[in-house]
């Protein structure tokens, strides 16, 4: 029983370590011909968003571009997360 608790504690510690390493990783995504940029960390937290002034005149274009840049940043952050988990965490993911 104590061995299971130790394994759980070790796994939890490893997960916290990976999470803190992911917070240090950064990905950048762009949309609308580079006029919108988003930076996100490996924990999928948005760090910054910048929108060029000329794009602000068209609300629908901005909304679509923000959606696109967010989805792109999430995909990049998920890839960083999966790579970190396989490398540092010893996790094996099917198909990778």
How would you sum up this structure, described in words?
By secondary structure, the chain is of the alpha+beta class. The radius of gyration is 18 Å and the shape is rod-shaped. Helix content is 55%, strand content 19%. It starts with a helix and ends in an 8-residue tail after the last helix. The protein has helices at residues 2-24, 59-88, and strands at residues 26-31, 36-41, 46-51. The chain has a domain at 22-88: Ybab, Chain: A (2-Layer Sandwich), CATH 3.30.1310.10.
Helix and strand arrangement:
Blueprint: H1 2-24, E1 26-31, E2 36-41, E3 46-51, H2 59-88
Antiparallel strand pairs: 1-2, 2-3
The amount of beta strand, in percent, is 15-25%
The quaternary state of the protein chains shown equals single chain
Supply the CATH architecture of the domain at 22-88: 2-Layer Sandwich
Number of strands: 3
Total helical segments: 2
Which spans of ≥5 residues are poorly predicted at pLDDT below 50? none
Question: Would you tell me the overall average pLDDT?
Answer: 86
Strand order of the largest sheet: 1-2-3
Q: What is the CATH fold-level name of the domain at 22-88? A: Ybab, Chain: A
The CATH class of the domain at 22-88 turns out to be: Alpha Beta
User: Per the principal axes of the C-alpha atoms, what is the gross shape?
Assistant: rod-shaped
Helix/strand class: alpha+beta
* Percentage of residues assigned to helices: 55-70%
